[in-house]
Model the fold of this input.
Amino acid sequence: MISLNCYKKIECILSDWRLDAHQKYSILGCKTKNHNAIFNLQELLTVIDECTDIHYRVELILHIASSLKITFNNPKNINGFMKMKNGNQPFNGTCPIDLACESLSGLETVDSAITQIVKI
Done:
């Protein structure tokens, strides 16, 4: 189970990234039957048991958010990077969020790619 404080941090990050509810549940590994569901703590608690690797995913999201803040000094880039089309590997013309929402492996790939940018 994730704490209320952790939920608030994650909700803030995902909202800053301007993700819709479906993307928010997908990046957390939650399968919600209601694709129009509002992302909130009450709704998340109803599907939390179906969220795979939730703690690890939260860790990755927090790391990505931190890496973006190190990489960019512009809030538009910090908050918009995940939804910007990117021609570089591994994104190949798609948005990082699309890869991150596909699977845990996709989320790890996004984290790794952003970490490589930080190291440059």
In short: Residues 54-71 form the longest helix (18 residues). DSSP finds seven helices and no strands in the chain.
